[in-house]
Amino acid sequence: MIRKAGASFSRIFGTYKRILTIIAAGAIMYLCIVWVGVLGSIEPVGTKRLVTFYDRGQKQVVLTRADTVGGALEKTEIKLNPQDVLEPTANSKLSGQYVDVIIYRSRLVAVKDGAMRQSVVTTAQSPNTILKAANLTSLGSKDEATFKTGSITSEGTPIVLEIQRAEPEPIKETKPQVVAFTPRPDALTRSKGAQIFVDSNGVAHRETYYDLPMNVVMRACGGSYSIRSDGAKVDQNGYVLVAANLNSYPRCSVVETSLGPGKVYDTGGFAARHPYGFDLATDWTNYNGQ
Fold first, then answer.
1. CA torsion sign, 72 to 199 to 255 to 113?
2. 8 Å CB contact between 209 and 279
3. CB-CB contact of 109 with 161 (8 Å)
4. Confidence (pLDDT) at 38
5. pLDDT, tens digit (0-9, with 9 covering 90-100), for 128-174
6. What does the angle CA 255 – CA 171 – CA 219 come to, to the nearest 5 degrees?
7. Cα–Cα distances in Å, from 93 out to 68, 101, 130?
8. How far is CA 119 from CA 1, 107, 246, in A?
């Protein structure tokens, strides 16, 4: 009897042990599944970026983990036409936590150049690049270009570029007018380093600053320069010294910047990547009055 009772106890204990093993294995498997789910739900650290899209004077901000400009664009409701241009391009990798992207829209522009009337569909933003797209003569140093609001009925578009070519004038001594300096709340500063400035025509420009001696580049338009009270380098007429893409803005062109009216004296490597960007000359780095 004792042997039989011991055998029965062994069988019962073995069965109980197997049941406990099965329960433990099931619990471990359940915990593993839960742990994998938790790990899958944990968002990766350091990959979120704030991407700001500038589109026709408006801006839209998106928080995304996309690693390209095109991927970030897909997270917005912005729709592009095939002819529209992104700066940087859609395939460009996003770097940094904050990224600015400019959208240049393709649109119909009517050009009035003397007796010439011509319309062109283009993403070009500056007068000179629009003239180039329309196969018209580039601006001369004294030619003037003005954007005006046109009529859909007569011009077929609300965007009109009017060119006034300079007439040869007899040489005479004239006293140049000095540009008045009016501080702006959205002006570029040393602490900002870089920003997007939207001018009065709705064109977005990436603005940066640099600090180098400007004596050599001043020969392009003549004259001298000095340091303004806010540290901007200005010519004898008060124009901020600007570096730009010379295909978009030829030397001596007057442009609109966040530091006030500027004149193009220089260019740089940035111009290939940012064709409508401005690098503003300042004394914010060396503080040496040069």
1. positive
2. yes
3. yes
4. 47
5. 999 999 999 999 888 999 999 999 888 899 999 999 999 876 656 56
6. 45
7. 4, 12, 29
8. 112, 10, 23
